[in-house]
Design a protein that fits this description.
single chain; about 425 residues; alpha/beta; FAD/NAD(P)-binding domain; 2 domains; 5-stranded parallel sheet; globular
Length: about 425
């Protein structure tokens, strides 16, 4: 590979803060909001023009999984404006989430990419950003990596793994889109991969596997917050790594090319969709799985299946099956054991999952925390990630208050603060 040597530059320090949150998805939102509410000087940077991540720029259909108590419960109450509060209104959330952050005192900077970290020894002390204002530095005392992919922790040298242990295969990428022109009096909705209907031509899900371009091949259709509009979760791109820019571009092209064929399929086969057409689509391809960091503890599938309550819990009342999308095609992966998941009790996530090995000054947040490939398929969903963010914000705020590294914080202090915020095991 040929290299270009970049001349040395003097990079201006554009801001200094106590807590810096990189990434404004549900987990980053939760972290920044909580840290600021606890009185810490907090800044959030986000690469897109809105906070909310998959819930807003990704036009996700609904809140999947179950998350009791804490910030998500408060947020769901504020966000609900229809008969089904779990249905997401992306446009409402864009302003609601931004205003909540501003009202809490968070400094929000959108349209800003983190390109590198600043380190002193093995401790992160800030980041280098790229934006319309050029290359700048932001210094911080504590960094919360809410990038989903763990970009900051990875650049700092924290060890991680990707995909399943056998071959590194990761869950597929998807572009969500919306259909207008749907006859809602006759429209059918399919919330799960096993939801289907018997048509004169045969079973709908079987037909989708035969007629849609692989690796697409399932029907998932959800009501939206808009009249006559349905959200579609049917595009699929496999063998793509969300930390590789060329793979992301390939997935974007593949998913967008599937959309027209999906519309034609729905028009032909599904009652109520005869006149449907695309009226909106996600601003970016949705990435389900990339880096999972080696933390002080790796949450595993047995912890979830047994609804384990850890002594050092920081996230509680989380519940979701193993939503493991097929690594090699459409539908769910057989290893997800979807049909066998019978646990009705919620699980907890320990503080140790948020503390990476070998690097100081950074807290893991959201889907990049320490866990196995299979466990990740449960805790990666947005409601759980928002409460992971709440825990990260508490840990960061107390680290500043007690002048201790997050790794060394007394768990009783963390849990006391979380109990005051409606988080109980």
């Amino acid at each position: 590979m040929e290299y270009i040597i970049e001349p040395q530059k003097n990079i201006p320090v554009a801001a200094e803060t106590e807590v810096l949150v990189v990434g404004g998805g549900p987990s980053g939102f939760g972290a920044a909001l909580t840290s600021a509410r606890m009185g810490r000087r907090t800044m959030l940077i986000e690469q897109y023009g809105a906070v909310g991540g998959v819930a807003t720029t990704g036009i996700m259909s609904h809140w999947t999984g179950r998350q009791g108590g804490g910030l998500f419960e408060e947020f769901l109450f504020k966000a609900g404006d229809c008969e089904c509060p779990e249905v997401i209104n992306p446009e409402k959330l864009k302003i609601l989430m931004l205003n909540m952050l501003i009202e809490a005192g968070v400094t929000v900077q959108l349209y800003t990419w983190m390109s590198d970290v600043i380190k002193e020894g093995n401790r992160i002390t800030g980041v280098i950003t790229e934006s319309k204002s050029g290359r700048e530095a932001i210094r911080c005392k504590v960094l919360i990596d809410s990038t989903g992919d763990g970009d900051a922790a990875a650049k700092a040298g924290a060890p991680f793994e990707k995909g399943r242990s056998a071959d590194g295969g990761m869950q597929p990428m998807t572009i969500m889109f919306k259909l207008a022109g749907v006859d809602m009096d006759r429209a059918m909705f399919f919330w799960g991969f096993e939801d289907t209907v018997q048509l004169p031509e045969g079973d709908l899900q079987t037909l989708s596997r035969k007629e849609l371009p692989a690796p697409a091949g399932h029907v998932l259709l959800y009501p939206s917050s808009l009249p006559g509009v349905v959200t579609v979760n049917m595009t699929n791109s496999i063998n793509a790594d969300g930390t590789n820019i060329r793979d992301i571009n390939r997935a974007e092209l593949e998913c967008r090319n599937q959309m027209g064929k999906i519309v034609a399929f729905l028009r032909h086969y599904v009652p109520g969709y005869e006149a449907c057409y695309i009226c909106d689509s996600s601003n970016a391809v949705g990435v389900r799985e990339t880096r999972r960091f080696l933390a002080e503890y790796q949450l595993n599938e047995e912890d979830i299946a047994e609804a384990r309550v850890f002594d050092d819990w920081v996230v509680t009342k989380s519940r979701f099956f193993f939503d493991l999308h097929n690594v090699t095609g459409s539908g769910l992966d057989n290893d997800g054991a979807y049909r066998q998941f019978k646990q009705e009790h919620p699980y907890t996530i320990p503080k140790r999952c948020l503390i990476p090995r070998e690097v100081e000054g950074v807290i893991l947040n959201g889907r990049n925390i320490g866990g196995t490939h299979k466990a990740h398929s449960s805790y990666r969903v947005m409601p759980i990630c928002m409460n992971i963010g709440q825990a990260a914000g508490v840990i960061a705020a107390l680290s500043m208050e007690k002048k201790k590294d997050a790794r060394d914080l007394d768990i009783s202090l963390v849990q006391e603060a979380l109990r005051a915020q409606n988080v109980e095991p």
